[in-house]
Amino acid sequence: MFTGIIESIGSIRALTPKGGDVRVHVETGKLDLSDVKLGDSIAVNGVCLTAVELPGNGFAADVSRETLDCTAMNDLKSGSPVNLEKALTPTTRLGGHLVSGHVDGVGEVVSRSDNARAVEFRIRAPKELARYIAHKGSITVDGTSLTVNAVDGAEFLLTIIPHTLSETIMASYKPGRRVNLEVDLLARYLERLLLGDKAAEPTSGGITESFLAQNGYLKS
After folding, report:
1. For 88, which DSSP code?
2. Which domain holds residue 198?
3. I need a surface site. Which of 81, 83, 115, 154 has the fewest CB within 10 A?
4. For the segment 112-158, what is each residue's pLDDT rounded down to a tens digit?
5. Last residue of a domain, one of 86, 120, 135
6. Is position 216 within any domain?
7. How far apart are CA 156 and CA 110, in angstroms?
């Protein structure tokens, strides 16, 4: 688990094809690796990866075909900057929100505009994730825990303060960039709980307006 508070901006040193998937070598910058052991988890742009090599100036991790297909990791190349966060410990301050490091989908930066010293980004999420994104709720973008300031369909607005811009890779975002998205865990669990016994039915498609009406959650 992670908090979504980025600890360092690292960079991709190499991406090496290996048996059908990829081994990624990450230089970790100011990230303290003194307490990291082989097998520990580190989030790279919000993707939970397992350290399989620790050469001293960074780490290497294997990226499966599933991860490559479901995230924006395919967009990375040698020299790409990345957000880094080590897995939380029992004594970690939970400054963001609980983040699993399992990407739910890939979004796209639609627009960027200045707002005083902050920068506003409008991001389009996959349609299937729209129901989990709420005004003033939490969302993780490339591993960064952020607050949603407005929602319009599958698009949502973020206002990013100067500190976050300087401590993450968001300063480099431009329209058209693909980003890893992880929705709030609580939203996913709430949806599952609302299904009740129907959650065990293999044909269940999740919460719909019809389901809510049939089960008394909506008034006619």
Report:
1. P
2. 185-220
3. 115
4. 999 999 999 999 999 999 999 999 999 999 999 999 999 999 999 99
5. 86
6. yes
7. 10
